[in-house]
Amino acid sequence: MKIAPDHGLLQYSGRIDFDDRKAPVFAFAGSWIKIRFRGSGLSAELANHRSYASNYLGYILDGEQRKFLLAQDGERHSYLLGKRLPEGEHELLLFKRMDACHFFTFYGFELEDGEILPPSEKPSRRIEVFGDSVSCGEVSEALNYVGKEDPIHDGEFSNSWYSYSWMTARLLDAELHITAQGGAALLDGTGWFRGPDYIGMESIYDKIEYNPEICPVKSWDFGSWQPHVAVIAVGQNDANPENHMALDPSGEKAKNWKRRYREWIEQLMRLYPRAHFVLTTTILNHDAAWDTAVAGVCEEIASPRVHHFLYVRNGCGTPGHVRVPEAAAMAKELSTYLNSLGDIWNESEM
Question: Which residues are registered as beta bridge partners of 24?
Answer without folding.
Answer: none
